[in-house]
Structures are given as structure tokens and as C-alpha cells.
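Action item from last meeting closed. Structure (153 res):
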């Protein structure tokens, strides 16, 4: 069998013509594989797998005179069929600030929260319905070719 994976994404910037609007970016994408995929309950083998995702990035506030620095927010959602994926739903949100510290205009501070929901089969097997994660990071641009990013989860 010929096995393939295809991933595609479309980006949309709804207020691109409005120089007074904060940057807004909507991304929608999906994936498809033709590889054999076992059912979560192992009773069946599917001829493939697929899923989709969408994200929204919104600049909330920019520093005076620099549209590249400031506070932004993001939302994300993904879905995959629960009969062949252990995790079928994912939700996430967070805040990111670029250039928070003086003389560190390319550095980024971020915080996020995500929730994954397990497939109904796993919920029945072990009683676990979801899992949550929080993340805090600081990405420091040390040189144009080097960044360091401590990450706390």
C-alpha cells in the first residue's frame, strides 16, 4: 500500500487593509494520512486518519511607534475522529508579549493554557476525561542566529 501524509493550511488576515487595526491572523488547516490506523479500542483497522485545526492570533496592544512590539492573544482548536485517535479535541489560549523588557525588543514572554479531551473509549477504560497543561516561557534572542527559551510547564 502506498502510504502518504498530506498537510495543508490556509491563512487569512481579515483587516489587512486597515492600518489602524491590530494584526489579526486566522489559520485553518488539516491533515490526512493513508496509513493503516488502529481503532482506539483495537477492534478495527482504518484505511487512514485525518483531522483539522484552526487558530486565531490577535494583537491586543502595540507599543507606541512599533507595531512589532506589544501584547497579543491566541486561541486554538483541533479535532480528530475519536474512533481512531486517543485525543479527539484540543482547546488552547494564551498571551504573548514581544519587547517587554527595555533594550530586549526581540524577546518574547508568553503564557498559555491547553485542554485535551480523550476519546470516549479511553474515558470508559480508565475514567480520565481530559488533561490540562499550563506553560510559561521566555524566548531571548541572544544573537540574530541564536535564541534561548526556558520553558515551565
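Sequence:
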Amino acid at each position: 500500500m502506498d502510504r502518504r501524509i498530506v498537510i495543508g493550511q490556509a491563512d487569512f488576515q481579515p483587516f489587512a487593509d486597515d492600518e489602524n487595526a491590530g494584526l489579526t491572523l486566522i489559520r485553518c488547516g488539516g491533515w490526512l494520512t493513508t496509513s493503516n490506523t488502529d481503532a482506539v479500542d483495537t477492534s478495527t483497522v482504518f484505511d487512514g486518519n485525518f483531522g483539522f485545526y484552526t487558530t486565531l492570533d490577535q494583537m491586543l496592544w502595540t507599543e507606541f511607534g512599533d507595531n512589532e512590539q506589544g501584547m497579543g492573544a491566541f486561541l486554538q482548536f483541533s479535532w480528530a475522529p475519536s474512533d481512531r485517535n486517543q485525543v479527539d479535541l484540543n482547546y488552547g489560549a494564551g498571551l504573548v508579549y514581544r519587547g517587554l523588557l527595555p533594550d530586549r525588543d526581540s524577546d518574547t514572554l508568553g503564557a498559555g493554557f491547553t485542554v485535551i479531551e480523550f476519546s470516549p473509549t479511553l474515558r470508559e477504560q480508565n475514567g480520565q476525561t481530559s488533561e490540562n497543561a499550563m506553560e510559561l516561557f521566555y524566548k531571548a534572542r541572544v544573537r540574530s542566529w541564536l535564541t534561548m527559551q526556558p520553558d515551565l510547564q
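Note appended to the action item: Helices lie at 120-126.
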